[in-house]
Structures are given as structure tokens and as C-alpha cells.
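Box 3.1 A note on notation
Throughout this textbook, protein chains are presented in two layers. The first layer is the amino acid sequence; the second is a C-alpha cell string describing backbone geometry. Keep the layers aligned when reading.
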Amino acid sequence: FKMEQLNIANKKLKTAHDNIERDYYGAQGIALRDLPNEALAYVASYLATPSKALFAVALSNGASMNDATNAILSLEQWKALDFGEIDATLAAKITDDYLRNILICIGANAKLNTLKLTGCVNITGAGLDPLRGSAVLEKVDLSLVAEHKSPVLDPKPLLSCEHVLPILDSINGRDANVLRSIVFPKSWRDIGAGNTAFHEFLGRCNQNFEGRNITCQGCDQ
């Protein structure tokens, strides 16, 4: 079955290539999104999960979903999204607009259980807005670094309590929320008592976790 799909995709790619050859001199060629959906999905199947999302967003060109983006999005269930799966230089280029479009594109508010913003050092957190009020988000890692790596970042990341905490509050404040793990940036934790908004959020979060009998495995707090 897969070989048949590949043969069909190859034939369509050859047709598209022939069209480009004919149109090369003076005529308008075709865009990437004009290639067969089967071919685009086949190529995307070799990409890391975040790259699939970026590819789908690029093909949508900021517009509503189309057959090409849907073909790529159907390759994943979108339960987890970890930007640590892509090259650090690419993750660093992701802006809040990109992040917002990705989360909307994959239907993150109704699907995403785990989000890790590994390497996304140039976002403020405003792009997380599509997650507002999520009833399915369980784990979110805002540390911006990979597991077992130093949490110290230089320069200091742009991620802002002002943008992120209201979104987390909208999730944590739901009666039926399943949020049970948040990893915060070291820069937020280092500010200490001076970061009033952060510590007030921690109080609300701990109260909610205690009400659902969620405690640390290490210290039982």
C-alpha cells in the first residue's frame, strides 16, 4: 500500500516538475503548496514533530487550513510538542507569532497534553494565548533548556510573567483542569520575593495542586 502511494506521489511530482520545466522561461511557475498533497505529506513524514507543525503553518500562509496542511497535520495526534526535537538555531528563530500559529494550526487547546519550549529563547509568551483555558494540558516546561542541561541562559530570555501567568491562571483556575507539572525559567525563580506576581501565582497553583492531591515525589510538598 505504501509503495503504491509513493508511486502515485512520484508520478505527481514528475508532472509538477514537467510543468515547472515548461514554465521556466517567462511563464509563472508553481508554488510549493501547489505540489500534490501526497508528496508533501510523504516528505513531512520524515520531519520531527515541531518541524511538521512549522511546515503546515508555512503551507497555510497564515490563511485557513487547506488540504495540504490537513494532510501533514494528520500525521500526528499532537498530544506532545517539544521544540527540543529540532535544531537549537531553528528553535531560537521561533517568534510569538509563529508559536501562536502553530498552536492554532494543531488545535492545541483541545489536544496538547505536553508542551516543552526548549530552545525558544526569543518568545515573550504572548504566543501561548491559544492554550488559554485548556482542559487537556497536563505538563508545560517553560525552562527553555533541554533536560539535564544548565538552566542558566545568557542573554536572559524574553519569556515574561506578564504574558504567561494569566494564561496559566486560566488553565489552573478551571474546575476540571488536569495541569500537574510546570517547569519555570530559572530567571523567574532567581528574582526571589521581588517577583510578586510569580509568587502569588505559585500560591494559587500550590493550593490547586493540594486540592487535587498532587505533590512532589521528592519532598511531598
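DSSP finds ten helices and four strands in the chain. Confidence is low (pLDDT under 50) at residues 20-27.
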